[in-house]
Fold this sequence. Notes:
By secondary structure, this protein is mostly helical. Helix content is 85%, strand content 0%. Helix 3 runs antiparallel to helix 4.
Amino acid sequence: MVPILVAFLTLATTGIFHTILGTALPAIQVFLGMDTAQTGLFASFAWLGFTAAIFAGGILSDIFEQNLILMLACITVGLSSTFFGFSSLFGLNCLLISLLGAGTGVISSSSSALVMKFYPRKEGLMINIHHFFYGIGAITGPLSMGYVLKQGWDWQWVYRAGGLWMLLLAGILAFQKKQPQIHKRPMIDKSFFTLIREKNLLLLILITLFGCGTYNGVSLWLVSFLKEIRSFPIFQASLGLSLFSAGLAIGRLLSGWLSSKIGNTRVLLLLLSFLSLALLLFLLTTGSAAILGICFMAGLGSSGLYPVALALAGINFPQQSGTTIGILGTSAGIGNMFVPWLMSVVSQGSSLKGGFLIGHFTALIALGLVSLYYGRLNRSEAK
């Protein structure tokens, strides 16, 4: 089915956009004349847009046709990406990166709702497969941007190529037949306010905030960490991010398979344990080959955090899948802004090694929440 294929491709391209920012960050920092704290603030604008839009995208996907919402998001990403970096004005580029982030937020929620709609009762498996495509894009992005920078070309060309590709996908969606909506609800109703008071959802919100925030902080600052702390050349540092993304992609397939065998709650506990260990090893290991292996390990630990949380939310609240996707996406977006920003502030005062220590601490918070409430989540999943 064409809409499902486009949903997979748009999320793959979202993976590209989310990872090329980290690879291009040193070059963008020079282009805009930013210090470390300003760079962290700039990157947070992308996740500000993501956070503001993913919630709206989830609710709109419960009300309107998902194809239409996905098409509008592709247009937003396409235009903002194409014009990003044309000017060196800091404010203008902050606006464009915010719009780009907003588009990817709507893509994340609307495409996930579309997949859940077509594959009910297979949430854990299909959402992980869906996000496997994100991992493929996350592998391709750093390698492409790293190659462009190695050749001495402008980083803007990768964004422009991605923008044109998203406009093409929007054109494909424009020619798809309208699909009937199973149900329509008011944008905010009583069930929404009941939903956000559910203890299991509040728990998943906190786990998503700290877990995804840690993942994004590592993804954003990994290339800079490898360059400044471990003295890697740019292409080798980009390779580290691609290995992280490779672990992300492979881990999502493994997470999907394990979810169908041992349950989503156990997978979530295993992933956070693996991520916490990897971040500890980042701080202790100095060998180049070992660090590249740890990059892959960290990607494995990060891989299924968001998809598994979405699956648990879908299992707990099947009638409001779009809204719960939006709520968890918002919490992920808040974490994606807060944790990288906090890492940048600490790094500005000390070094990026201190920033990665903060990432390790936030991963431990998420792990502690899952461990403390493991029985509750496991019982709700088994019902």
